[in-house]
Amino acid sequence: MDKRDWFTIPNILSYFRLILIPFFVYFYLTAVTAEDYWLATGILVLSGVTDAADGFIARRFDQGTKIGQLLDPVADKLTQIAVVSVLMLRWPVFSFLLLLFIIKEGYMFVENIRLYRKKITLDGSKWYGKIATIVFYLTMFIAVFFPNLSNVTVIFLVILASAYQLLALFYYVKLFKYLHKSKEN
User: Which of 38, 70, 90 is where one domain is finished?
Assistant: First the structure.
């Protein structure tokens, strides 16, 4: 592995996203005014923009690396876990979404390891995983930006995001079963 792979622009953007996590958590947990919540939301948006930018740059300028293939999803998952975790402090119903997220991601992690042992790899996330991630981020963005949402609205958002997590999990289960069977045949 080339040492330069550690410092490609996409990987630097992933490191930056990791650095943003404690800043988001701090600013959200200490927020008092609407402006404080907007600052926390801005950090979350900046994280999302750098996530999109690192993927675009990696593909467009052929700067994809093995390190980046590991680093990018780790930054994504840690950001998502951090945001949902702080939202749980305000609205405990987010714990259901966090549990579902951990189950889905844990299942995918185990299945990807099993496939890797069979010399099979998935080429990125599928459309249903991307949609689930977009809905997940929109839910988090709305909850961070509007800290005074009613419980009914929050429950609706959690149910919506959870439904998409379940849908993605269902399709990933089908995909992994298919991949395992196709390797056996």
Answer: 90
